[in-house]
Specification:
Elements lengths: L4 H30 L7 H23 E5 L13 E6 L5 E2 L6 E3 L9 E4 L8 E7 L4 E5 L2 E4 L2 E2 L1 E7 L8 E8 L2 E8 L6 E4 L4 E5 L9 H4 L2 E2 L3 E11 L13 E2 L2
Antiparallel strand pairs: 1-2, 2-16, 3-4, 5-6, 5-16, 6-14, 7-8, 7-13, 8-9, 10-11, 11-12, 14-15, 16-17
């Protein structure tokens, strides 16, 4: 079961603050009036000690940056299983933690961005690439993207070794000003078309044939955006492996 750390952190901070404030407003004066040497109750002491630290962590995670670990192969070769990425929480606007309400607009997702969001069918965080923004008409045909009638540019890099019975090839894909690597195989996939409405985004994984994305569950909504992935800051292979910094890099 996945743990919703931001949700838990929010309510722990709220609880600590309520306990500390309640003691200051209603109980401290009475306690000290009865005995000026009275000790602070243990629960209040813990709440007072942890509140500022947890509040700082909550503010940093909610409004500045948040770490996220890659759980699947859907973004290969850009992101590997075990990559820890840094998510810029303010790139697309400041949002209230837990509630997700935008309180300050900063910018909007652009084609080619790697974005963390909550999809419409699952409460967990997903990470995919933005391929369609509001107002776009997108077609995916013969493993190629057509945006507003223009075919995106592809350059073959070579075969992906050990890809199994179905050959997988690596390409450079250019979407607007963003060039990145993708994997795709030669298996037939039916063509799909989308007209992207306001407040929604078409998301795809870079590992096109091993990604559950907008082709299967629909468009991502603006209200469910978490932030923009900006860097890999740590990598840990599955199992009893030590973390390392071999894949550290900033995204273009």
């Amino acid at each position: 079961m996945d743990i919703d750390l931001p949700y838990i952190l929010f309510w722990v901070v709220l609880g600590c603050g309520a306990i500390w404030l309640g003691d200051v407003l209603f109980f401290r004066k009475k306690r000290l009036a009865a005995d000026e040497n009275a000790q602070e109750p243990g629960l209040v002491e813990y709440a007072r000690s942890f509140f500022p630290v947890l509040l700082l962590v909550l503010v940093l995670r909610s409004f500045l940056a948040e770490p996220y670990q890659i759980p699947s192969e859907s973004m290969l070769p850009t992101l590997q299983v075990g990559d820890f990425i840094l998510v810029n929480k303010y790139a697309y606007g400041l949002r209230l933690p837990v509630f997700g309400v935008k309180v300050f607009d900063v910018g909007a997702p652009q084609r080619g961005d790697v974005m963390v969001f909550v999809p419409p069918h699952d409460p967990r965080y997903f990470i995919k690439r933005v391929v369609g923004i509001p107002g776009d008409t997108v077609r995916y045909e013969n493993k190629a993207l057509f945006i507003n009638g223009e075919r995106m540019k592809y350059k073959l890099i070579g075969d992906v070794p050990e890809s199994g019975r179905i050959a997988v090839k690596e390409y450079l894909e250019t979407i607007g000003d963003n060039t990145h690597t993708i994997f795709k195989n030669t298996r037939f996939e039916r063509a799909q078309d989308w007209r992207i409405p306001q407040g929604e985004y078409l998301m795809m994984g870079d590992n096109r044939d091993k990604s559950q994305d907008s082709r299967f569950w629909g468009l991502a909504e603006e209200k469910d955006i978490v932030g923009k992935a900006v860097a890999i800051w740590l990598h840990k292979k599955p199992g009893l492996k030590m973390p390392n910094f071999s894949r550290n890099k900033w995204f273009d």
